[in-house]
Specification:
- The protein has 92 residues and is α+β, with helices and mostly antiparallel strands.
- Helix content is 25%, strand content 41%.
- It has a single domain (3-90), classed as 2-Layer Sandwich (Alpha-Beta Plaits), CATH 3.30.70.100.
- The radius of gyration is 12 Å and the shape is globular.
- The model has no long low-confidence stretch (mean pLDDT 96).
Length: 92
């Protein structure tokens, strides 16, 4: 299976709606590693690494997010996967 890394920026009403905690839960459920954090400009930033189909699944989930989120835009940049993550974490 091909391993990939997606660096994602999610815009809209994505802070204050538990986006990070839902993303972590979903990433662990799907089986990808990486991290997620809030940005000062109101966006959420995340890095997902893993099998291509699993990373694509979590990116697709980000397009709607958790209940209460209003996702307006998802920017996805594919990068070489360094494979340095062992789990999925929320970064503060």
């Amino acid at each position: 299976m091909v391993k990939i890394r997606a660096h994602v920026y999610v815009s809209g009403v994505v802070q204050g709606v538990f986006f990070r905690s839902h993303t972590r839960r979903k990433a662990l459920q799907i089986g990808v590693t990486g991290w997620v954090k809030n940005l000062p400009d109101g966006r959420v930033e995340a890095v997902f690494e893993g099998d291509e189909d699993r990373v694509n699944a979590i990116v697709e989930w980000c397009r709607s997010g958790p209940p209460g989120a209003v996702v307006e835009k998802v920017e996805v940049n594919l990068e070489p996967p360094p494979g340095r993550f062992n789990s999925f974490e929320i970064v503060y």
